[in-house]
Amino acid sequence: MDPLTGNKRKLTEETQNQAQAKQPKVEKSEHSSLKIQTFPEQYNQMLDEKVARVKGLFNDLPDFPASDVEVFESTKENFRMRTGFCVKHYGGRMYYVMFDQKTPVEVTSFPMGSKLINDLMPKILEECSKHEVLSFKLFEVRFHTTLSGEALVVLIYHKNLDDAWKVLAEELSKTLNIKIIGRSRKGKVCIPEDKNEDFVTEVLNVNGKVLKYKQIEGSFSQPNSEICSKMLEWALKVTAPPSTDADLLELYCGNGNFTIALAPNFRNVLATEISSSGVAACKYNIALNGVENIKVARLSAEEFTEAWSGSREFKRLVAENIKKEDYNIQTIFVDPPRAGLDDLTRKLSAEFDNIVYISCNPETLHRDLLEITKTHKIMKFAVFDQFPYTDHLECGAYLTRKSTNE
Fold this sequence. Notes:
By secondary structure, the chain is of the alpha/beta class. Helices cover 30% and strands 27% of the residues. It has helices spanning 13-20, 43-58, 115-129, 132-135, 163-176, 225-238, 257-262, 276-288, 301-309, 315-319, 343-349, 362-372; strands spanning 27-28, 70-72, 82-90, 93-100, 103-107, 138-145, 151-157, 179-184, 187-191, 199-206, 209-216, 247-251, 269-272, 294-297, 329-334, 354-359, 376-384, 394-401.
């Protein structure tokens, strides 16, 4: 028994193996239909097919620039900065699994994941297997890495985490030079405890400028950091040249990913986000990057629409000293969830001269543009291959208000 377990009852190796022997074996990834492999030699063809499908979807829109769609390719391997795996215990060993339908499939490598994820995957299992305190009832491992070389590993358990676990987790953190979060039903422990950090800091190069972003564990961040940089550069390009008198409104700002990058193109930026942790991260990142022309309010898109129309007042806007009359908003930036824009937000968007729309779902983007193109014209359209080897494509559209004779 591990000397750090104390008096708490643990399964002996013999009884643990007996319990595990009852579990069914899992498939090997090469024998399943689980889409975790990469096919660099087929990448260009697969991307061309995705782009063709998107063009076909949007071709019914007026003035859709099908021949001028910008295509931004991903790297062909090691493009995902974060991922997670379930952990199975069988035959005296631990291993990672993902699920093909309901069938668990063993994962020994993950070529879609960053090089750092692939480097850490076997080391985490190896180090945890050395100590029953770390391995017992471990059922999920999540990895969050950055281009800047940071790594946060989340170990999730079906048990409470005691002082013995903390001691070994501290050692693991030092051995692998990573941050660790231990999660259980009743708690969350950040390692190293003296830092108590539940985030990594990503560093992106955007048009030669270095931008830093705090990415909190469990909160949304772009999974493909290199494509993220290309999205930011595209958004900067379509909103150029910089203005000294026009302001930007951004809905769904998250941790300030686009907010901070776009700030130099506008006099002021007003950003909203419904998540309190997202607002806190956005404010942190604004200060981290030394940006001084952004204000952030914790409001949903629907709430901001009510506030902008004057139908409802919000103390949260008063607390941030945000007044409608202080802004000359000519451009709105939206990056909604897969459901797209609600009716009120679509109508709000049409009030502004320029619209930048980033979408993770071409179907709802198409639905929204069917309405928005009644008042605005698509000037630029781009696709970003955020998830190679899948059917998924991110889209970006830049629209300007139609003239009276259009």
